[in-house]
Amino acid sequence: xxxxxxxxxxxxxxxxxxxxxxxxxxxxxxxxxxxxxxxxxxxxxxxxxxxxxxxxxxxxxxxxxxxxxxxxxxxxxxxxxxxxxxxxxxxxxxxxxxxxxxxxxx
Length: 106
Fold this sequence. Notes:
With 106 residues, the protein is mainly α. The longest helix has 30 residues. The radius of gyration is 19 Å and the shape is globular.
């Protein structure tokens, strides 16, 4: 939410809903991800990268849906919750596998 607020101060309120091309979200997201991975700290590049990829996904869903923006964000939130649960299950399974002992035979 803070990233949305900061962007509104610079680019205008709700500008991200006014038809920013998908390539722009991809370009900006990859640039911020690279800056984050390079350790640049002049701004929160991690959050900026996530925001751009989030808005890319929102744009794609919007193009393929008659839903209102708030409905799309609700759909995204549900998908993120599902992904979080799946990640937790994967982490749990990985931990169990890491704790297994391997038996060697001669």
